[in-house]
From TrEMBL:
The gene is idsA2. Its cofactor is Mg(2+). The keyword Magnesium applies. Keywords: Magnesium, Metal-binding, Transferase. InterPro entries: Isoprenoid_synthase_dom_sf, Polyprenyl_synt, Polyprenyl_synt_CS. Gene3D superfamilies: Farnesyl Diphosphate Synthase. PROSITE patterns: POLYPRENYL_SYNTHASE_1 (PS00723), POLYPRENYL_SYNTHASE_2 (PS00444). This is Bifunctional short chain isoprenyl diphosphate synthase. It comes from Natronomonas moolapensis (strain DSM 18674 / CECT 7526 / JCM 14361 / 8.8.11). It comes from the Archaea.
Length: 291
């Protein structure tokens, strides 16, 4: 676990530094409320692990001892900021008063300031991607997919399993894909390798979203750190709601995506390294996680 904790610490340290320097200064507390209140940091960890699995090396005590290493950490923090910005909007749409066990942004600050906070997070994120045109394109494409996913969920809700899977790919898989591709880009990987890592992460993201459906339907709010039963209350599409599948069968669908993720990772031919092992573990973990 020391291996993962060091990488998480690199993300946390750089994230705190970026937010502390955010302008205007009056916004800093709100940005920190959203981004420093906890979270699994799955997407930035995917970015760093993909960087190393693709041949990159995190060097120096703070991980920023080379241009590639510093870029990988910036990309990892940037994708986390994009994710946090999307959560602010999600909580407004869902009327969720809690996020990660604390007040959601709109509850703490009001609707207008919450939206401004989301914009501020995006601004800080894109300042971290500006060193590489491929990174900018990767994140922009992911945000298009994410926006289309959010719109679909609101105005054209899926009614079949196939439609739902496309929604999950856009709403959750796209940012996971971007995270892994950003890591591979920082490692100067070739196009095939970048796309293979992206395919792995997209499948992990879909499995993650499906597992979320199961947890929302079966877990207690205290265990989740956010309200449970929101899908039913908000009439929001989930595989549990729009199909006749039991939660156990839905979790089986998540397992299928996990296995497809592992196949995509193998196709990248990343060799043998601790980072690869942890990426494999992640594909397993997202199916069994409890929150």
């Amino acid at each position: 676990m020391e291996y993962l904790e060091r990488r998480r610490a690199l993300v946390e340290s750089r994230l705190a530094t970026v937010l502390e320097a955010a302008e205007p200064g009056a916004m800093t507390e709100r940005l920190e409320h959203v981004s420093l209140s906890g979270g699994k940091r799955v997407r930035p960890m995917v970015a760093l692990l993909a960087f190393e699995a693709a041949g990159g090396e995190l060097v120096g005590e703070d991980g920023r001892g080379s241009a590639a290493s510093a870029e990988a950490i910036d990309f990892a923090v940037g994708i986390e900021l994009v994710h946090n910005a999307s959560l602010v909007v999600d909580d407004i749409i869902d009327e969720s008063e809690l996020r990660r066990g604390v007040e959601s942004a709109w509850t703490a600050f009001g609707y207008g300031p919450a939206m401004a906070t989301s914009d501020g997070l995006l601004g800080e994120a894109f300042s971290l991607f500006g060193s590489d045109d491929r990174a900018m394109r990767t994140v922009a494409e992911a945000m298009v997919e994410l926006g289309e996913g959010e719109a679909t969920e609101l105005v054209a809700q899926p009614t079949t399993e196939a439609e739902y899977m496309e929604l999950a790919r856009r709403k959750t898989g796209a940012l996971f894909r971007a995270a892994a591709e950003l890591g591979a880009i920082a490692a100067a990987a070739d196009t095939y390798t970048i796309e293979s890592f992206g395919g792995y992460a997209e499948r992990v993201g879909i499995a993650f979203q499906i597992r979320d459906d199961v947890l929302d339907a079966t877990a207690e709010a205290d265990a989740l750190g956010k309200p449970a039963g929101r899908d039913e209350a908000m009439e929001r599409p989930s595989l549990v709601r729009i199909t006749d599948l039991t939660p156990e069968e839905v979790n089986g669908r998540a397992r299928e995506e996990s296995e497809a993720a592992l196949s995509a990772l193998a196709a990248a031919d990343p060799g043998d390294s601790p980072a690869v092992g942890y990426l494999e573990d992640l594909a397993e973990f997202v199916v069994v996680r409890g929150r």
